[in-house]
Specification:
The structure is a homodimer. By secondary structure, chain A is an all-alpha fold. Chain A has 2 domains: about 1-55, Arc Repressor Mutant, subunit A, CATH 1.10.10.60; about 70-215, no CATH class. In chain A, about 75% of the residues lie in helices and about 0% in strands. The first copy, chain A, has 12 helices and no strands. Chain A has helices at about 5-25, 30-40, 45-50, 55-70, 75-80, 85, 90-100, 105-115, 120-140, 155-175, 185-200, 205-215. The first copy, chain A, is elongated, with a radius of gyration of 22 Å. The interface between A and B is large, with 71 and 71 residues. Chain B binds a DNA duplex through helix 1 and helix 3.
DNA sequence: CAACAAAACGAATGATTGGTATGTGGTTTG
DNA sequence: CAAACCACATACCAATCATTCGTTTTGTTG
């Protein structure tokens, strides 16, 4: 095996082990020795490939941030396929797959929030609305989308809100380990959520009078 | 000072220090010595009041779970005052105040998810839909609310969804430290979110034809 | 005040921490 | 083929870990 191959192989082994352990024990709670052992290397070798412990952590977060941008990400594919705003249930299924595929990385965000006051992920979250805005501009140039949505809000707000609630729902289901968190099977809960996001929870103005009269 | 007073004072000092440190350094990342020092006590004394480290953690989570049930909690007061479903912006302000007042406890949830696989908080989250259901039944007996909401979903789903998105929004703003996460001032973003939750993001059926023709 | 219990202290235990210094054997390159 | 280099392991450091324990101080009660 060439030296370059060995080096790369070791680095990914280290990062993999670090991801696994950081995401389950926290940053301070994980030792370089544990990481080295799980990667099948010596502690000294870890320091040969990475300057210090924190760099391991920030490298993993950067990986995540790149992954999230990948057009092949289920969630991004669903968006590109036009799931928003007309097929929110398809978007939900993509959200589930995305969280499931990045479970340890999501945990890393919680670790950053707790142990680094969110210092590493803050930039990512701040840039997020810009990412969504760019996506909308490329997928629906001009105000193409605005005319298809109800008035009174930015399309980006609607998109971010739908994304947030769906991704957070599955974070709770998968990372917190809570099935049927709304007291309904997830499929039903999603259908209802999609309905509320699309048509609202309040009675439409027109129907209100009728309903009231009937009551 | 009576013995009982001393004991209670020490216990709360220990728990306060533990909350502060666990919520900023994680569970494994916090030592009993640190807790004892911050509480102004000896390490041995901590073990006099609590059997082990994990009991400190679980005690804090139980405290949180009780707090969340308190009718005086801003969020609960807003609900009791009828903010749902007609004044979601008031509910949002209550959500912000609630998160701000329980910031370290929210961090504790993340710690539990990461370092205990969510084992301690899972029960709480599973019971949550029951809590909301009981609230709805007491505040709006029978189907009083169902007739005021659009058809096609459980009132509880709507309530939980609105609560989740609002509480999560402020968790990101306050714990993650991300201002204007939707690319808009929070006040505007909240107004838009409330509008979407209430009336939906899609064009109402009646308006659709008109809009299309105009385009 | 005597007798007892609870509260508090702080040292000791053996294991583990992040990081470094040094040496060795294989890979590359002149 | 030798010199430079790189991946890697070993050994080591001072500091810290959760927990235990013998002891002292403080409060309560008869």
């Amino acid at each position: 095996m060439t030296q370059g191959e060995k080096s790369e192989r070791s680095q990914t082994a280290i990062l993999q082990a670090a991801l696994h352990l950081f995401s389950r024990q926290g940053y301070r709670g994980t030792s370089i020795r544990e990481i080295a052992t799980e990667a099948g290397l010596s502690t000294g070798n870890v320091y040969h490939h990475f300057p210090d412990k924190e760099t391991l952590f920030t490298t993993l977060l950067s990986q995540y941030w790149e992954d999230i941008d990948d057009p092949e990400l289920p969630f991004n594919k669903a968006l590109a396929a036009g799931a928003f705003p007309d097929d929110l249930e398809a978007l939900a299924r993509a959200a589930e797959e995305t969280i499931r595929g990045h479970r340890p990385y999501v945990a890393l965000i919680y670790v950053d929030v707790v142990e680094f006051e969110g210092n590493h992920i803050r930039k990512f979250y701040s840039e997020m609305s810009g990412r969504f805005a760019r996506f909308l501009e490329s997928r629906y140039p001009g105000d193409a989308l605005k005319d298809r949505l109800a008035p009174g809000f930015e399309p980006r707000t609607a998109l971010m809100m739908a994304s947030r609630i769906l991704l957070h729902y599955f974070s709770v289901e998968i990372l917190f380990g809570v099935p049927d968190q709304f007291g309904l099977p997830t499929s039903v809960a999603l259908r209802e959520m999609a309905g509320i996001l699309g048509r609202g929870m309040l009675l439409p103005e027109s129907a209100k009078a009728g309903k009231r009269r009937r009551a």
